[in-house]
Design a protein that fits this description.
The complex is a heterotrimer of chains A (112), B (208) and C (117). Helix content of chain A is 71%, strand content 0%. Chain A has 4 helices and no strands. The C terminus of chain A is likely disordered. In chain B, the strands form 2 sheets. In chain B, strands 1-2-3 form a 3-stranded antiparallel beta sheet. Chain B has a 3-stranded antiparallel beta sheet with strand order 4-6-5, covered by helices on one side. Chain B contains 7 helices and 6 strands, in the order βββαααβαββααα. In chain B, α1 packs across α2. Chain B has 2 domains: 61 residues, no CATH class; 124 residues. With 208 residues, chain B is an alpha+beta fold. Classes of the chains: A mainly alpha (112), B alpha+beta (208), C mainly alpha (117). Chain A: Belongs to the CPA3 antiporters (TC 2.A.63) subunit F family.
């Protein structure tokens, strides 16, 4: 292995590590919440990070094997969070804007 | 006896670049079929004649099984406009990403606001395309779109200074103009070439 | 010739690294910003800018016509579907009262909602 290839490998490894750190921080955001909508956004970003990770893997191996999977994730990654957003919106409809602002994790309680 | 095959340049009722056939007047949209075939070939990720032919067959079957309403969407492609739009969006993404990063890392105190920006174009497709383009930039997130008044409501992160708000409004109008120049019909482009609406309209209220 | 290919390879790796850093910055923004709407600003960053940079890096390293087209299609659909989800989340955050209205400097949508209904 020549020296430039080693530089490339080092750069790609750094990129993978950054993506992994981002994923870990995102898991912390999903864990903390505070509302279901935060988790919905995090789910979107999670799909984007999975696509980025698969892209890094194909750049390592120079192999387009995972491209269809990335394509399908880009197609369908948004459906989960759309479901959550619609679900919460339907369940919380009786609220009026005059109510006091909600506190953490009250999105998981039943209809008001 | 009616013709079995009819093309759009002979029949003005049909949308452009489409043809109808058969006794039940099924309408096939030619660009839609080509687009579906391209996606099919890309999903198989090899360009062979077998893939192209099966893609054509599958897309024709899909178009016949799930027919779309016969409307002219008003989608025209202008290549140079698309290049301009992509370039501006990339530049805009970069600058707004820098702005949002500065906001998060250094924790500048900021007050957010929701502003209404009335658009000049009236067609649904242009409204949707502008909304998608605006919300792809990190600084803008669309909360609500009013179809009746063609107004988009944008959440702006740092709204302390009035010039920032003006800049956000002008940015939305710029994106709208570029989007319509990339995808719009001729009269939409003429409408967008006019100056933006006056300030009392820009306050988010519909015209009296 | 091989030198140029090597340069293109390294440029692809650098682009991938920049894209990954952009993703990380966006996620840090998601951790630090205070409410749902602000977080969705930060969430757009890994979804569009980071994604485009990463895919461009991969395209520079693979350099095939078919791979290039597939990567362009991935970026296109990511940019087409991302706003759908973020708009729905923002809209239902606004409608269900998860936005603290006293925090907003002013709010032109609220006037219209109360006027129109």
């Amino acid at each position: 292995m020549t020296a430039p290839e080693q530089v490339d490998r080092a750069l790609l490894t750094c990129a993978v590590i950054l993506i992994l750190i981002a994923g870990a921080l995102l898991l912390a955001r999903i864990w903390r919440g505070p509302s279901m909508l935060d988790r919905a956004i995090s789910l979107d970003v999670c799909a984007a990070l999975i696509i980025a990770g698969l892209a890094a893997k194909s750049a390592f191996a120079r192999d387009p094997f995972y491209f269809p999977i990335m394509l399908v994730l880009a197609f369908l990654g948004f459906t989960g969070s759309v479901g959550i957003a619609r679900f919460i919106a339907v369940r919380d409809r009786p609220r009026t804007p005059d109510d006091p602002p909600p506190h953490s994790d009250d999105a998981q309680e039943g209809p008001r | 006896m009616k013709r079995v095959l009819g093309f759009s340049f002979r029949n003005a009722d049909l949308p452009p670049l489409s043809f109808e056939f058969g006794r039940r007047r099924r309408v096939l949209d030619l660009p839609l079929i080509i687009w579906l075939t391209v996606i099919w070939v890309l999903l198989w990720s090899t360009l062979t004649w077998a893939n192209v032919l099966t893609g054509l067959v599958v897309s024709v079957v899909v178009c016949l099984a799930f027919p779309l309403p016969r409307v002219d969407l008003g989608l025209r492609l202008h290549p140079w406009g698309i290049v301009c739009l992509a370039g501006y969006l990339f530049y805009d993404m970069y600058t707004s990403a820098v702005k949002v990063t500065r906001q998060t890392l250094f924790g500048l105190p900021h007050r957010a606001a929701v502003i209404g920006v009335p658009l000049r174009c009236r067609s649904d497709l242009m409204l949707a395309a502008t909304a998608v383009a605006v919300s792809n930039v990190p600084g803008g997130s669309i909360i609500e779109v009013r179809r009746a008044t063609a107004t988009v409501f944008v959440h702006v992160l740092d709204a302390d200074r009035p010039e920032e708000l003006e800049a956000a409004r002008r940015q939305v109008w710029r994106v709208e103009e570029l989007t319509v120049r990339a995808f719009g019909t001729r009269d939409e482009i003429a409408r967008v070439a006019e100056p933006p609406p006056p300030p009392q309209l820009a306050a988010g209220r519909p015209a009296p | 010739m091989s030198l140029w290919l090597q340069i293109v390879d390294t440029a692809g790796a650098v682009l991938l690294l920049i894209g990954a850093a952009t993703c990380l910055l966006g996620v840090i923004g998601m951790l630090r910003l205070p409410d749902v709407l602000s977080r969705s600003h930060a969430a757009t960053k890994p979804q569009t800018l980071g994604m485009i940079l990463v895919l461009a890096g991969v395209a520079l390293r693979l350099r095939g016509g078919m791979e290039l087209a597939t990567l362009a299609l991935i970026a296109f659909f990511q940019m087409l579907t991302g706003p759908v989800a973020s708009h729905l989340v923002a809209r239902s955050a606004y409608r269900t009262g998860q936005v603290d209205h006293s925090e907003l400097l002013f709010d032109e949508l609220d006037e219209q909602l109360t006027d129109g209904k």
